[in-house]
Design a protein that fits this description.
The chain has 712 residues and is mainly beta. Helix content is 8%, strand content 41%. It folds into 5 domains: 31-352, 3 Solenoid (Pectate Lyase C-like); 386-495, Immunoglobulin-like (Sandwich), CATH 2.60.40.2550; 502-573, Immunoglobulin-like, CATH 2.60.40; 579-650, Immunoglobulins (Immunoglobulin-like); 653-709, no CATH class. The protein is elongated.
Length: 712
């Protein structure tokens, strides 16, 4: 029956970073800390060991389930001068191991966890000095569990205990994306002593030391320990790893370049070893005290130890051909297999649901191609880089115009580009990389693609080549993972210019009628020449018309290799409606003549249409009472206007008297009627008018005088 690998690590923590501790490392910031740590009750605001806002105060505060750090105190180091004791569940989200260190100043263990579920990310834990079987860095006591992510555990020392970390029976420890290095212990282990359950992934255990030769330098496992995508290198002691009890599972682990044995398995322990590399150590690479290893397959073993057969996909007694421990991408140090390594493509991808791990220690995908590599670092299945070149403008421009060519180097599987490479990129025009027609520019490949800008290409079709050279693709002094140079090619046209620039205005505003604007008008110019560069512009900036005008001319002139072009626009703006005016009195007596004149005018665009009535003639003809004149007009810009005026006609004795004098021609009758009006004898007045109606007084005049008298 086939062995089934244990499930993936219990806690998938975040991408990690190492800090510089006398060896090359990569720096970074844990994603959980990439946020604005604005001061809050659970934010550390001081680097002091104790007091308000200190880490120790917040750890002791049960009201703080999650602790973060104020960016204003970073980067820095908290010098505790002793141990940080944790007795409850808490999450400490550090800003990144490169930004903040927690130090005990060699005055005790740095951290002791006695209870709860504790998560620590983004810190360097250093300068601890444990005693009486305490670890120098971190001690974990039951029933506690501890998770570490993006943690650098370094420069800690244990007296009668391990240097880096010790977990006691009944505890659980998870480590992800972390570095355990340069720790010293004289009992248990230099780096980690794991008596409880532990899962470690995507981490490196390196350069740890012991004061007692029989003690393992890197890791002592007596509980149930799972390692996946882990590098163990540069440790001293009798062995780098000692599996002294329990059942341990190692997959995609690289154990190499250690001063003693690679892996030692006690007779009371079981180690399942898969897709791993145990080779290149100073002592025996693999030493098994009792029966052979448990489940084992697809591993590379440098010597004849371990009792593994040279079968089942294993490679026994061979040189794994590893590069040195270095920054090969990702955020922890690795040994990368070199061309010709037996670790490359050792296991078909279909053997165990792909590779059984979708990523390597660096976070690069597995597999590359159809098969999986042994060890912590996967490499592409081909050693040829790919280079591409692009241009802006994309495919052509004119003589003298600026064009930018950009070259990008990438791995054939798409797992990385530019940032994981060294080498030089040279961009040339025509010819070949070895014999270019013209060199446009050259630069070392850094954190971004290489770009060059030129205006010197002559008219015609050109072949642009991006020529990449340099074997240092892994950023390792001796590793040449992708030794073959590569180049990218594109065609590009430089067009001779026989025409001046094309100048196009854009007018923004409210357009009325007859080409008139009724609001402010903004003018913008687009000047282009597909064949050559624009060498000068006059009047082509943005402008606006904000006052009424019968016609303002705005011009733009531009010059290119094809000549000088010009464009003008005439802007007519009338944002004011017509003016309608009524001239004349608005109050009349019946004997007066009405004289009201209506006029409509527009000073800018003029009147297009109007209905503007006037009022003239005898007031008595209009009738007694109020009368309203309504006027409307529209200007040539399309803006309308309306207006109205009301005038009144009133009856007075004097007014009727004046009408009698004007309209009754028989003087005797006129005088008689006037006398009656003057004496207020209105009924007698009406009787006399009625008697003379149609005789001495025209009937229509008589009817009017009777109606007016009735209003007195």
């Amino acid at each position: 029956m086939r062995y089934t690998r244990p499930t993936a690590l219990a806690l998938a923590l975040f991408a990690v970073a190492c800090t510089d501790l006398n060896a090359p490392t990569r720096t970074g910031m844990h994603p959980a800390a990439r946020r604005d740590a604005a001061a809050s009750p659970c934010t550390v605001t001081t680097l002091a060991a104790a007091g308000a806002g200190s880490l120790s105060e917040l750890v002791a505060d049960a009201a703080c389930p999650t602790i973060s750090f104020d960016p204003s105190i970073l980067p820095g180091q908290i010098d505790q001068g002793g141990t940080l004791a944790i007795t409850r569940s808490v999450t400490i989200n550090g800003p990144g191991s490169a930004k903040l260190a927690l130090s005990a100043n060699h005055e005790g263990s740095v951290v002791v966890v006695r209870n709860g579920t504790v998560n620590i990310t983004g810190l360097t834990i250093r300068d601890g000095a444990g005693s009486d079987h305490f670890a120098g860095g971190i001690d974990v006591f039951p029933p506690a569990s501890l998770s570490l992510g993006d943690v650098v555990l370094a420069n800690n020392e244990g007296v009668l205990g391990p240097g880096g970390l010790m977990s006691h029976p009944g505890t659980s420890v998870t480590i992800s994306g972390s570095t355990i290095r340069d720790n010293t212990g004289d009992h248990g282990a230099g780096g980690l002593w794991l008596e409880g359950d532990a899962d470690i992934e995507r981490s490196v255990i390196a350069f740890n030391h012991v004061g007692f030769d029989e003690t393992p330098g890197g890791l002592l496992a007596t509980g149930t320990v799972t390692l996946q995508n882990v590098t163990i290198s540069g440790n001293d002691g009798r062995a780098a790893v000692s599996v002294a009890g329990g059942v341990s599972h190692f997959s995609y682990v690289t154990v190499t370049s250690n001063a003693g044995e690679g892996v030692s398995v006690g007779d009371a322990a079981t180690l399942n070893l898969e897709e791993s590399i145990v080779a290149g150590n100073a002592g025996t690479d693999c030493l098994v005290a009792g029966s052979p290893l448990g489940h084992q397959q697809f591993s590379v073993i440098g010597g004849t130890g371990c009792g593994l057969p040279d079968a089942g996909g294993n490679r026994i007694g061979v040189d794994p051909k590893l590069g040195p421990l270095a920054d090969n991408g990702g955020n922890t140090l690795t040994h990368v297999p070199q061309p010709g390594s037996p670790a490359i493509d050792i296991m078909p991808a279909g053997e165990l649901e792909g590779c059984g791990a979708s990523r390597d220690q660096r976070g690069f995908g597995r597999p590359h191609g159809d098969a999986c590599d042994a060890g912590a670092a996967e490499i592409p299945g081909t050693f040829q880089t790919m280079t591409t070149v692009t241009a802006v403008p994309a495919s052509s421009t004119g003589v003298g115009a600026t064009v930018t060519f950009t070259a990008t180097v990438s791995l054939p599987d798409g797992s990385g580009s530019n940032t994981i490479f060294g080498g030089t990129m040279t961009i040339v025009a025509d010819g070949s990389c070895a014999a270019p027609g013209a060199t446009l520019g050259s630069a070392a490949i850094a954190a971004a693609p290489v770009s060059v800008t030129t205006q010197t290409l002559a008219a015609g079709h050109h072949t642009i080549l991006a020529c990449y050279t340099g074997p240092d693709l892994s950023r390792s002094a001796s590793a040449a993972l992708f030794p073959a140079a590569s180049s990218g090619t594109m065609g590009y046209d430089i067009i001779a210019d026989g025409t001046p620039p094309v100048i196009t205005p854009t007018l923004t505003g409210t357009l009325g009628t007859n080409g008139w604007y009724t609001s402010d008008v903004s003018v913008a110019w687009n000047v282009s020449d597909a064949e050559s560069a624009i060498t000068s512009r006059t009047g082509c900036g943005a402008s606006s018309v904000t006052a009424d005008t019968p016609g303002q001319i705005i011009s733009c002139t531009a010059t290119s290799a094809g000549g000088t072009g010009s464009s003008s626009v005439t802007i007519k703006r009338d944002a004011s409606p017509p003016v309608i005016a009524f001239d004349g009195p608005t109050s009349y007596t019946v004997d007066q003549d009405i004289a009201i004149v209506c006029t409509a005018s527009d000073a800018t665009s003029g009147i297009a249409t109007q209905a503007c009535p006037s009022a003239t003639g005898p007031a008595f003809a209009a009738g007694v009472g109020s009368h309203t004149l309504q006027a409307a007009a529209t200007n040539n810009a399309g803006l309308p206007a309306t207006a109205a005026v009301t005038y009144t006609v009133t009856v007075t004795p004097a007014g009727v008297t004046a009408l009698v004098a004007r309209l009754v021609t028989e003087s005797g009758i006129a005088n008689s009627l006037i006398a009656k009006l003057q004496h207020g004898q209105y009924q007698a007045f009406v009787a006399e008018v009625r008697a003379q109606s149609g005789k001495k007084i025209p009937a229509n005049v008589a009817a009017m005088l009777i109606e007016l008298a009735g209003r007195l």
